[in-house]
Amino acid sequence: MNAPLVRAYVEALPDLSSDGKAVERVRFCLSTLLGPDVRYLVASVLGPDAPAIARVTAAVLRAAGAPTGILGRSLEDTTVDGAPIDDALLAQAGTLTAASGYQLADAGRDLGELTRREGSVILALTAFAEASQRVALLVDADIAPGDVAHVTHPDLVVVGRVDREGADRALSLLPPDRPVVISVLPSEVRSHVEERVTAMGVPALLGDRDHRIDERDGRLVFTVRDEPYVTIDAVPGIERSALATGIAAALALGVMGIRMREEWVTQGIATLRAELVAS
Predict the structure, then answer these.
(1) How far apart are CA 44 and CA 55, in angstroms?
(2) Residue 31: CATH number of its domain
(3) pLDDT (tens digit, 9 = 90+) per residue, 81-123?
(4) In the chain, what is the straight-line distance between the N-terminal and C-terminal CA atoms, in Å?
């Protein structure tokens, strides 16, 4: 299939609401591909500011030499190493996605029909693997447990600035023993979240306790456990809480096998800032 045919295939899929079998359908389709060889780290990024957090994290990881894909709500806001999926990759990943959809219709018909959202997610995850991405950031701004953004088991969960209900939904998606990075939260929400992660016994980097951003002499200082780490400039359109959470998430993923240096953090943020200023 070429890129126009792939786009037509995805658009032709029904735009249906969840019937409770979405995750099972996508897992079936991915299993039929027998590859691509998926070795990228996965982070679920949750909350209304998740898109901004993911952009920050991806910018830092790319500066560290780790190509990073971002799964957005649609193919249009899904990126591979900072750029939209190009036609060659779209054709390659789309052909595999369509093949998996035909397998579903043939051998997994009891699971129901593939939807447009499900097809887009399969295509994106396949594209990340085909393009040898080191990290995949799966964005769920609505924190919807049934959404197929949660088809994979994440290595890290990142929770943006949420209310108490949103925090509870986000923490319900946290696999056992997996770390979580949490944004700066209102005091009453933070207390509740701190109690929950302590009871769960999961490693947590909590905003204001373990990471934060302070303003000093007109610049921003990112601090980890009360130790200044890097000094950066503000990034237009991205709040400090999202900026701090995105950097903390990049550092947490770095612990899982990506070499990180302070200068790569500053380089990544400077590059993102320049992109947003130019736009």
Answers:
(1) 13
(2) 3.40.1190.10
(3) 999 999 999 999 999 999 999 999 998 889 999 999 999 999 9
(4) 33
